[in-house]
TrEMBL record:
This protein's UniProt keywords: Metal-binding
Protein name stated in the entry: Glyoxylase I family protein
Every VOC domain range: 4-127
Molecular-function annotations in GO: metal ion binding
Length: 127
């Protein structure tokens, strides 16, 4: 029945800041940007390595969502990387703070977390 994940939708509180973060810091490719006048809302379609993955939305006054302490529901978005240390260095060069590196006790793989401008937890997972 299911073929795969089509996209992840993210609602941001400040469109210009989040747009810059996802396109300039994380280097996601813009596929299409649409302003929907009737909703006073932007929709930005973003791709990673040519694969459509994120819809970034803006809405007027969206309610805050708890990320910490860990709340019920979707916890985080994880990106795979080949070299965790190099990925961390790139983020830190853009003043993005990362948590200390952890090791997955089940797989033995290294990973870390950081946040988008709205404190959405994002993960880098070394393949």
């Amino acid at each position: 029945m299911l073929k795969g994940v089509h996209h992840i939708a993210i609602i941001c509180s400040n469109y210009s800041i989040s747009r810059k973060f996802y396109t300039e810091v994380l280097k996601l490719e813009i596929l299409k940007e649409t302003y929907r006048e009737e909703r006073k809302s932007y929709k930005l379609d973003l791709a990673l390595n040519g694969n459509y993955i994120i819809e970034l939305f803006s809405f007027e006054n969206p309610p805050k969502r708890n990320s910490r302490p860990e709340a019920n529901g979707l916890r985080h978005l994880a990106f795979s990387v080949e070299n965790l240390d190099a990925a961390i260095q790139k983020l830190q060069s853009k003043t993005i703070q990362t948590e200390p590196i952890r090791v997955d006790p089940i797989t033995g793989k290294r990973f870390t977390f950081f946040e988008d401008p709205d404190k959405l937890p994002l993960e880098l997972y070394e393949e």
